[in-house]
Amino acid sequence: xxxxxxxxxxxxxxxxxxxxxxxxxxxxxxxxxxxxxxxxxxxxxxxxxxxxxxxxxxxxxxxxxxxxxxxxxxxxxxxxxxxxxxxxxxxxxxxxxxxxxxxxxxxxxxxxxxxxxxxxxxxxxxxxxxxxxxxxxxxxxxxxxxxxxxxxxxxxxxxxxxxxxxxxxxxxxxxxxxx
Amino acid sequence: xxxxxxxxxxxxxxxxxxxxxxxxxxxxxxxxxxxxxxxxxxxxxxxxxxxxxxxxxxxxxxxxxxxxxxxxxxxxxxxxxxxxxxxxxxxxxxxxxxxxxxxxxxxxxxxxxxxxxxxxxxxxxxxxxxxxxxxxxxxxxxxxxxxxxxxxxxxxxxxxxxxxxxxxxxxxxxxxxxxxxxxxxxxxxxxxxxxxxxxxxxxxxxxxxxxxxxxxxxxxxxxxxxxxxxxxxxxxxxxxxxxxxxxxxxxxxxxxxx
Lengths: 179, 258
Known about the structure:
- The structure holds two protein chains of two kinds.
- Chain A has two domains: 1-91, RNA polymerase sigma factor, region 2, helix turn helix motif (Rna Polymerase Sigma Factor, Chain: A, Orthogonal Bundle); 107-179, Winged helix-like DNA-binding domain superfamily/Winged helix DNA-binding domain (Arc Repressor Mutant, subunit A, Orthogonal Bundle).
- Chain A is 70% helix and 0% strand.
- Chain A is built from eight helices and no strands.
- Chain A has helices at 2-5, 12-31, 34-51, 61-86, 108-126, 130-141, 146-153, 157-175.
- The model of chain A is unreliable at 87-97 and 102-106 (pLDDT under 50).
- Chain B is mainly α.
- Chain B has three domains: 3-59; 67-140, no CATH class; 144-257.
- Chain B contains ten helices and three strands; from the N terminus they run ααααααββααβαα.
- In chain B, a hairpin with a 6-residue loop joins strand 1 and strand 2 (176-178).
- Chains A and B meet through helix 2, helix 3, helix 5, helix 6 and helix 8 of A and helix 1, helix 3, helix 4 and helix 8 of B.
């Protein structure tokens, strides 16, 4: 990060190697579209490079990048939602989940079941307020410590705990029908 | 039991289910759940919810691009932003000489010997106006370039998909088809796709589902061995026809070309 703060672009590569996948999944959990998520990650690293000089040398890079990623994904998600409210998109492949959303190639039956479950989970996640969703994704999917989540999202530990509690209960209400 | 006490207990149960409590806190919450039927039931339900939520496909999703391709994109963006004329994107750099020409013309108009009227501020205004127009024009240019590049990419991808439908027998292995060139060409096209900039913009929004489908099929072709099994190729052909991909590419390239 020190090299990046001095404007050394060579330092971007190792930083990407370490955080790219994690940030991509984080963006994807908001945007639900691989192209959108990829564009978002690209912007996140551009912002990280441009803002590296403002990085507090004593803090960890991971939470700092996570904060940029969450804020950027929320902004992009809101912009997309506004756009969708005024436009009707073309056929998105008969409502199928993008194959790149899954790393494996399951059987047709499993694919149908997985698609249904995936859509329900996505819809439950979408029902969470932006910050609650960030807290839930960072804890349950990224397995981040609560203290790191608090640092990354600039929240108090108490707020992180209460957000998680609300998020998991709302998810339960939404997913109950699947069981 | 006060409502505040109950809320704290409920919150602790949620955090326990999420594995977010450690040491003494976790032990205390577990001990409590053993003596409180309602809390134990709550814990079990939350755990089932979390197991279900863990099936979210995003958790296993792999980025469609490798680090080198993403790095190239990020560097391109940074170059664009670092350019002294950052309002004029790098892609339209040819307009900078045009701007210089306009400025030179303005300077010439200002400095040339006066014939009938003395020089006024008007030429400067002309130059300023030409810069403003260029800015707008650049935006249009950029969109046009994106559309043209995307159309070309789709055209070439369509050619490739048509070739794949009529493969040659493999000379080295019986009952296999030779797709070495097609796989290689797919990899090249995928690299081109990675470098296509601006396809996240609103302008080409309608083409994105087709780009996604094409990319998916190209990946399948790119992953084939040089002597592939016929049934693997047939599966790809079926996918192309199920997605009506050739027709969609036709429609989209026509739309992109205006």
